[in-house]
Write a structure and sequence with these properties.
Elements lengths: L1 H6 L1 H6 L8 H26 L4 E5 L5 H9 L4 E6 L2 H13 L6 E5 L12 E6 L9 H11 E10 L6 H10 L9 H9 L4 E9 L4 E8 L2
Parallel strand pairs: 1-2, 1-4, 2-3, 4-5
Antiparallel strand pairs: 5-7, 6-7
């Protein structure tokens, strides 16, 4: 999986502008991906308002991290991603956006980082649980790290394009996971945190869930 994201770092980053290589990719972006990314970004920023310390898990090319820093000017943000190529792009975007002094990008897997409980006001994980094969322990760890709230997205299982996406990514040796609402309710309940939001986003063609947990 790490190799996949190292190799596809620039392609992934281009989805934010609906400008990946290839006519079909651009059409899919304009129809589905870029709208989803922008809606998700708005929700992430809303979840981060008022925080002074934020952890973004799976920060990728840094587009979300930079947007958070620009929208929440008093916050310091740590982004962590296991792709070194993604982190190089993220540092460049932070410098270009004038927020490099408040953004730190770390190489690694977040469960192995030695952060103390409550190290951050808010922890966000947009687009991460697609690729976590054991999501329950991962969500519990996020809740441990957040003193106030956790916000994360989860791709919906029962949508028309879910099998297509699964086949495409698995052909590239990148496992992907999808979720049902009941599964998320059970997983969130097992953390001991309060479910503040569990919204169904997107459509029957391509959908996802937005979960916000209160940890205070």
């Amino acid at each position: 999986m790490r190799t996949h994201f190292d190799e596809e770092a620039r392609t992934f980053d281009a989805h934010y502008d609906a400008a990946p290589a290839g006519f079909l990719n651009r059409m899919v972006d304009r129809a589905f991906r870029t709208q989803r990314l922008n809606e998700r970004l708005d929700l992430v920023i809303e979840a981060c308002r008022g925080a002074s310390s934020i952890l973004e898990v799976g920060s990728g090319s840094g587009r979300v991290t930079v947007a958070i820093a620009q929208a929440v000017p008093d916050a310091r943000i740590v982004g962590i991603d296991f792709s070194g190529e993604m982190n190089e792009l993220a540092r460049a975007w932070a410098s270009r956006g004038g927020v490099a002094d408040r953004c730190e990008f770390m190489d690694g897997d977040f469960p192995t980082q030695d952060y103390k409980p409550g190290s951050f006001d808010v922890v966000v994980a947009p687009g991460v649980f697609d690729y976590i094969l054991k999501p329950g322990p991962a969500l519990r760890r996020l809740c441990e790290l957040a003193s106030d709230r956790v916000a994360a997205s989860f791709p919906a299982r029962y949508r028309l394009l879910a099998p297509v996406r699964r086949a495409r990514l698995e052909s590239q040796h990148c496992p992907v996971r999808f979720y049902a609402r009941g599964e998320l309710e059970a997983m969130a309940g097992a953390t001991g945190a309060d479910i503040r939001t569990l919204d169904d986003k997107g459509s029957w063609i391509s959908g996802w869930y937005w979960l916000v947990l209160g940890t205070s």
